[in-house]
Amino acid sequence: MRIGVLSGGGDAPGLNAVIRAVTKTAIFKYGWEVTGVLDGFEGLLSPTKTRQLTSWNTRGILFVGGTILGTTNRGNPFAQKTVVNGREITEDMSPLVLNNIQELGLDCLVVIGGDGSLKIGHGLYKLGVPVIGVPKTIDNDLSATHVTFGFQTAVDTATEALDKLHTTAESHQRVIVLELMGRYAGWIALEAGIAGSADVILIPEIPFKWEKVAEKLLERKKAGSKSSIVVVAEGAKPVGGEMAVREKAADGYVLRLGGMGERVGSEIGKRTGFDVRVTVLGHLQRGGSPDPFDRLLASRYGAAAVELIAKKRFGEMVSYQPPDITSVPIEQAIDKLRLVDPDGDLVKMAEGIGVSFGR
Ligand code: F6P
């Protein structure tokens, strides 16, 4: 048995831990071989973009951020964009991918990815490739698993940033706005916001009212608070307003969000007269060493992916349903985002301790 493994989409802390666990379980427990495919699905467009994985070259990577295989969050072999004679054309390159999988002698493919990469993986599975999915994203927005690896580390990083912002905000009697990632889901902002003691948390699932945000900050000042912290998820939007989009593809697909932190900061300044500063945490949330929770979860996911291969349960994705790692059909995991429930326990608890969601 020769397993192919690739990481697709944006990187997340814990990718290397999955790659290591897949490799070690395959080699030590089953005596199989593992081929790493480089740069996500792009690596399958050429049979030379691979690397043999061994227990030796996957040593010492458990705690290393990023992915030793490389990844990309642009490009899709089913709709590959290339420029021919100065014109951009879209081609279905899946026949080439199928051919390369055969040429490489891959008996199956482990796809470590979020919604987009799992969709591509599922497409290949429908064409006959034995695929196993592993859920990855710092956004934690996949519905078919309790949690994706990478999320907890992103929350740790964002919480540490909030701890630091509190002290400088207090020294200067400022309002500090922190913009966090998460795309259309507010999980990072919500959990880091609560853990980092934010006063206002704005998330995509709860469109906010400008006047409510300003009211909360003015009330705090009146009650004697010298500073306030506002967390803004990049996908947050005001009631009746739009998300802040930084980059769109020609077909209108949103490639990058960003800028809502600046908008919120400037509006707060206008409405309250407070001295406001804005920090965008950006890709710091994606980098660095996975925390112990993510190392453990990613290792469990990697090992469980190999067990699914042993049982020939192709077309499935490993899933964490505490306390067990189980599996679900990949198609259950795609096209259905796991979003924050605006009336759920976590939001209610936060409101109960005085956090405003601007509603
Ligand atoms: O999906 C992970 C994520 O970090 C999102 O939170 C964010 O919107 C996006 O990827 C950023 O992607 P890029 O690496 O293209 O800037």
Describe it.
- The protein is of the alpha/beta class.
- It has two domains: 2-149 and 290-333, Rossmann fold (3-Layer(aba) Sandwich); 153-287, Rossmann fold (3-Layer(aba) Sandwich), CATH 3.40.50.
- 35% of the residues lie in helices and 21% in strands.
- It is built from ten helices and 15 strands.
- The chain has helices at residues 15-30, 94-103, 115-126, 151-172, 187-195, 210-222, 260-272, 292-310, 330-333, 345-352; strands at residues 2-7, 33-37, 50-53, 80-84, 87-91, 108-113, 131-135, 175-180, 200-202, 228-233, 245-248, 254-257, 276-280, 316-321, 324-329.
- It has a seven-stranded mixed β-sheet, sandwiched between helices. Strands 9-10-8-13 form a four-stranded parallel β-sheet, sandwiched between helices. Strands 4-5 form a two-stranded antiparallel ribbon.
- Helix 1 (15-30) links the parallel strand 1 and strand 2 (33-37).
- The radius of gyration is 22 Å and the shape is elongated.
- The model has no long low-confidence stretch (mean pLDDT 96).
- Bound molecules: 6-O-phosphono-beta-D-fructofuranose.
- The site of 6-O-phosphono-beta-D-fructofuranose has 13 residues, from strand 12.
